[in-house]
Design a protein that fits this description.
Length: about 675
Amino acid sequence: MSSLYQTSVSALAGVGKKRVEQFEKLGVTTVGELIRFYPRAYEDWSAVTPIADITEEGVCCIKAVVGAAMSNAVLPGGRFLTKTTVYDDTGTLGLVFFNNRYVSQMLAYGAEYFFYGKVTRDSRGLQMIAPTFASVRGGVYIHPVYRTTAGLASKTIEGAVQKALRLLPEAVGDPLPEPIRKAYGLCGLRQSLCDIHFPSDAEALETARRRLVTEELVVLNLGMRALRERSRTRSGVKIRRDYSGDFEKLLPFRLTGAQRRAVADCVNDMMCKTSQMNRLVQGDVGSGKTAVAASVCYTVICNGFQAAFMAPTEILAAQHYETFRRLFADTDVNVGLLTGSLKESEKKRVRRELADGSVQLVVGTHALITDKTAFCNLGLAVTDEQHRFGVAQRAKLLSKGENPHLLVMSATPIPRTLGLIIFGDLDISVIDELPPHRKPVRTVLRSGRQRDKVYQFIRAEAAQGRQAYIVCPLVEEGETEGLASAEEYAAELMLRHFPDIPVGVVHGQLKSAEKDAVMDAFAKNEYKILVATTVIEVGVDVPNASVMMIENAERFGLSQLHQLRGRVGRGEAQSYCVLISDRLSAVTKQRLEVMCATNDGFKIADEDLKMRGPGDFFGERQHGLPQLAIADFADTESLGLSQKIADDILFRYHDLRNDELNLLRAEIDRLFDRGGHNTMN
Ligand code: ADP
Ligand code: MG
């Protein structure tokens, strides 16, 4: 097999220069890659429909005899049309082909074929449009469908794959060692490669698929671990003393057990390990990650180094800055804020103070990683809400010091199995305990007709001194067209429903300073109601807010809704989340009901992943993982299995460098060399 990765597809009969270029567009240059170019779907020809039973439009398979000569015609505009009629024991059906000059030579009058395709109705009745077909003598019922590109049809690819498979040697070297295959009931590579393209039946296909999916995830798993090993060989700045006990005295509350454990994990990493800390602190919204980060920063700073805390939005950075400033008010720690929207002179000053070391803790946005920012002796880099940052940005922040320790924090929109892979290069501490006296947020689903009732409810809460968020997704960030709508919504709210209650508005189009001013006023309880777009999604902390009302809830992903809901339930009062939606399809309803049923971020993340896939989940390829050929990040069962097998392989063979794993290592290199992983390092 490995030599086939060196053999160009041009070695196959019928693959000339033009074809080579077309294959290249699909990412296929070698015979080996072609064999690993798995079908994107299959046509099932095993269930044959008698022609008489075809009464409506749809895709089906018939077994029929060509009963008429082919008639060719050229349509206005140059389209080439071929028609014929076929029959079986029950009836006749017309077939239509477009721009296929060869079809008349390929179908013989009086011969029997399977035809598979879409039946549509026009004025003359039903006909099958551009079916794929094969002689009944072939005896193959499941047909592969490949991803195509201009000029390269699925049928052509199928032919090339057939030829490529003939080049496979009898004994194909298998990346998965035999004992492992035996232990997990996985079939051999040769069998699975043949069956994934041309399965004899559904069972053979499933067996092949399972083996190849598992293999790919094992390869991914081991590759991520290898990356972790690499980052482990660098040593971090020296931390000699633990100051987390002193830090706790600064807090207005006692840390939870889970927070304390997370802090201890970090301090232990920094003091005892020969390599730099590389830790993810994962905890649901409201679990108190900020205090954990602050404690770790404090220890690093008291040991004589600087710490940088990077947040994904300006609002969040400003809020953390305020929190830290208050927290460290009675200490020698100088806290600075560095965000893009600061005045130029202000930025200059903060940068100067970072460079000369007079600011020990800086909170900021991406402004922290621009070339202009330099540190005196950065010892710790913290990124908040990690899923908002690419792996590359994390690396950029680290490059601002000489091997600073790394702490990344994430709420939990990442399902466990996927998290293990994505954060496979990190150690993980989980904060699995909320601060005391928290009551779970009560979540309900309402239609727009019940909106007035919800407003009355908000009024009652406000009368008790509490506050409410109303989120409307009408104005997207960067979208100017709907600009008026968040404003309009608020205006109408104030005029019609809350003329006597102060209402603030915050959306993506406001200048940063304006946003901050509004948020600030809300935090100080000067506004009772805050109408907002999703700019408040991450991290904002106003414990007095007890209602989160979300308009057009169907437009949000579950994880996003969970983040929004996490803005309430932060104080001791019972909090509520009201999802408003008028467009309730069965699926939407089911989705939103998940929100009403659970407050568990992990469960919600799993559901979200099932329903939307990781692409949506992380935004544009934010997870920075390699592109998979057959496996699916949403397949948590296989993810779990692959994790186990990867453990097992390392247990049996001790080290990836073991000679028995040569082929497996080659597959790891292949996966990580393909495009899409360039943010890995
Ligand atoms: P997140 O994990 O979502 O970032 P935060 O760090 O913003 O959560 O904390 C949420 C709220 O809980 C804040 O108001 C914070 O002051 C408070 N908090 C954090 N830890 C504790 C604790 N141990 N006891 C009481 N309140 C706490
Ligand atoms: Mg937070």
